[in-house]
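Folding Problem: From Residues to Backbone Shape
Fields: amino acid sequence; protein backbone structure tokens
RECORD BEGINS BELOW THIS LINE
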Amino acid sequence: MKVFDKIVKKIKGKHPWEKFYGDNYKGIEVPDMSIYEFLKERNQDNLDNIALNYFKRKITFRHMFDEIDLCAKAMRSQGIRPGDVVTICMPNTPEAVIAFYAVNKIGAIANMVHPLSAEEEIKHSLNATDSVMLIVIDLAYKKVKEIIDDTKVYKTIIVSAGDSMPKALKLGYTLTKGRKVERPKSSEDFMYWHEFVLKGKRYGEKVLAKTTKDQPAVILHSGGTTGVPKNIVLSNGNVNAVPVQADIMLPELNGEDSMLAVLPLFHCFGLVVCVHVPLCIGASSILVPQFDAKRFDKLLTKYNPTLVPGVPTLFEALITNKHMDNVDLSYIKYIVSGGDTLSPAKNEMVNNFLKEHNCYKTIIQGYGMTETTGPATFGALGSDVLGSVGIPLPGNEVRIVNPETREECKTGEIGEILLAGPTVMLGYLDNEKETNEMLEKDKKGKVWVHTGDLGYMNEDGILFFAQRLKRMLIVSGYNVYPSHIEEVIISHPDVLNCGVIGIPHPYKVQVPKAFIVLNNDVKLTAKVKSDIKEYCEKNLAAYMMPKEFEFRESLPKTLVGKVNYRELEKENSK
């Protein structure tokens, strides 16, 4: 036996979750290269595979790399240098993907911004990141023109959602939605995508910058549901670590597979999991610029994606879609939920729905945050225990600590979740104070993220998410977890969704209030109200019982589809 093998065997006993990776697991290695170089290296033999599928227009890897090269040259021709920040304010279109990789190829940094952001939000992001170029969907031009002079941006590239559509569809889009959009005249300041890439054809110099895995590559933004959104800086290595981990956790995937990319590129889950991961496997990413829950059935039957990732609200849309009755889902290999927690009750609802549609896979839950480049744990390889969020991805570690004393919790004991591994962010942009509060280096030099979430691990190293630390209520001295109340209420057969917040109380300090959305076929009656209240009384301790129940047609959502608890709290503070 080689010395190396002896070392590996000693390491393998270190964490209980490592047994799920298989006998051949010897750790992971993230290559010292840029995101673009990693993608190119992984697809040398896949150039004729389909990389991007956009309204049935199929773009091969060969063509995509050619377009990335043109875009990179166009950027260099317009003065973009290594280290400059280029803001991409786009929905899921081929131009957005091409621009992201082109920015990385020249050693610049991509700042990903939601195109539905308000004027002041776009302005703040451009200024906070010192962006010098903006690539933006034409639908957002009206907002951009009002603020662009107050930024350092000297070149704005306008893109239409119709630019990469098949000809017939593009014509239809132009005559309907496209015709109503306000656009600028071409000038020194504003340029259209087709004009922009022509600049690349005339640029004769090489543009590939040599960058390392530790250099900053992309700036993403927190959802802002628990505070002011932050600018999160991720490195090349952070982003490239995720497909390396996926090689182990998703062994069935290959170049013939396709991923449904309905989650937006300005969100870590959308950019890294729905685009970078499948492309690094040689599979295709099906780009959906605007998700319509009522047409979810048409998306599935049109593309037959073998991997369907989403957030809980997307799976809500799946199981309530009225046109899914005869839809066969047997082609799905993996169906993944992330971005927010999926209650055990809803988890089982989705699993039963899949069985009814000839898919005998069960939904896989993951857990993570933008500060860990998306997924940090994942319920694959036999670790998908109901109610859990899986095991740490290869190379990652999880610790559970008492949030006050920082002492390690015992197995099964709830505490704050800490994460470490190759996907931990570089930090918050120009915010040393909050970076130091979020990241903690231990005596061995390992960096841990304080998630602000509560959870526990079982004896197998499987993680169970309990609740956000900041959402915990103190009711008459008792710790009350709104997510537990939500889970109980959602398990009632008449309930589709639920959100719980704390409201002031004269002597209990806080009490829970539940906001409930009923299933589509359930009418709100006095009997339904009383049934749900009685159900809560049977399944919740008295101190957890909601003081108020409010029934709504929908719950407010954040830009990335999570329940917006801050909005509910704001409404109830008036």
In short: Residues 163 and 194 are 9 Å apart (CA to CA). The longest helix spans residues 61-77. The two ends are 70 Å apart (CA to CA).
